[in-house]
Amino acid sequence: MSLRSYPEVTLQEARLLHQAQEKILHRGLNPMEVRKEGKRASKAFLRANSTVKSFAEVEKEWFEHWKAGKDCEYARQMEGRIETDILPCFVGNSIDEIEAPDVAAMARANQAPLESMNHRHVVN
Question: Whose C-alpha in 22, 25, 63, 74 is 20 to 30 A from the C-alpha of 90?
Fold first, then answer.
């Protein structure tokens, strides 16, 4: 588990962080799980006390702007694809929580079904 790197943290601070992690271990807890739970609690608090929009809210605003001047059938198809392939990947996320690896994972997840359709089994 990383305690951050030099020069971001001094040797003295690193020792104090290490001692804190050892105390957590001696209580029978996993320091990584404690850290993750702290991050989850912080995000939940910020989400509850923030005016930051969810990914779904931003997507709706974008889609309303994007569909102007588009063919109605094409816009309907795109909306269906967004609702089926993209929104489920970001349920409950505020727009400021989503990072590039999250978008890449969503793209990979949606790419796999397409690739399997292109690799048809050929029988001789």
Answer: 74
